[in-house]
């Protein structure tokens, strides 16, 4: 509950969809004071969505400069109308949580459909832990997932997930998560680097097949682990074309890529909507698991580094 001296707080509502949505409703409250106090609450739970509705004739809807939304209503009827519009926005939202509370808190922003996000790893980095959690979050919220692996076998993925206490095996049996082993199934494509149109045509065919699967099984979360085999050619033209094709898919795409070290930069960095580096740093005195938020959405290009552990209870602990 947000405490504020000069305000009349009516009630709070919590709506749990993929995100936790908190709605605070006021009558003739001081908007600046309410926002300042709400910012304190938001700082404790960065990944939660918060909206303020205030019956007032002094202020209009406004941009708050943060992820808190503020709506002003001139009457009770106007309040009900704006609440309905906001709840409808929640229901139709195409923005999703990653699925790990502590990780969502450092990402700050949600994952949006028709975008490709990158997990770059310069060592094992526990990527299967993160990818399994990402797919499980979707499966538990009516967002079916597709895992295309070009790196591991299906059984290996399931065993590693089991070792982290993540039961995606049952979700596979329930047809909420699908795993496609592309190690042998993806066509071996013969080409020269100058065959640009031939490469584009092949990429289009591959993405078209993925698109059919997405439509048939109502896939909302797509994992490609890893993306390199789909790129066909290391040239910028084919990589740009692949990303443009992937962004036409009506789902959130999470793709992995191997990099040499924490300071590596690749062509793909220009086309990922957001990039997270996950890996293990070994020096003379310690072994550290680290997460680097390289960039995330157009709103946030700040580079942030945190250390993490996966606890005995298989939860993520940010140091």
- The number of helical segments is 10
User: Sheet with the most strands?
Assistant: 9 strands, mixed
The fraction of residues in strands falls at 25-35%
Anisotropy-based shape: globular
Uncertain spans: 1-6
Listing every helix as H and every strand as E from the N terminus to the C terminus, the arrangement reads: EEHEEHEHEEHEHHEHHEHHEEEEE
In whole angstroms, the N-to-C terminal distance is 27 Å
Strand tally: 15
Q: Assign a percent range to the helix content.
A: 25-40%
Q: Rounded to an integer, what's the Rg over CA atoms?
A: 22 Å
Strand order of the largest sheet: 9-8-10-11-7-12-13-14-15
The structure class reads: alpha/beta
pLDDT average, as an integer? Answer: 83
Can you give a write-up of this model?
- The protein is of the alpha/beta class.
- 33% of the residues lie in helices and 30% in strands.
- It contains 10 helices and 15 strands.
- The strands form 3 sheets. The chain has a 9-stranded mixed β-sheet, with helices on both faces. Strands 1-2-3-4 form a 4-stranded mixed β-sheet, with helices on both faces.
- Strand 14 (304-310) and strand 15 (316-318) form a beta hairpin.
- Helix 8 runs parallel beside helix 10.
- Residues 1-6 have low confidence and may be disordered.
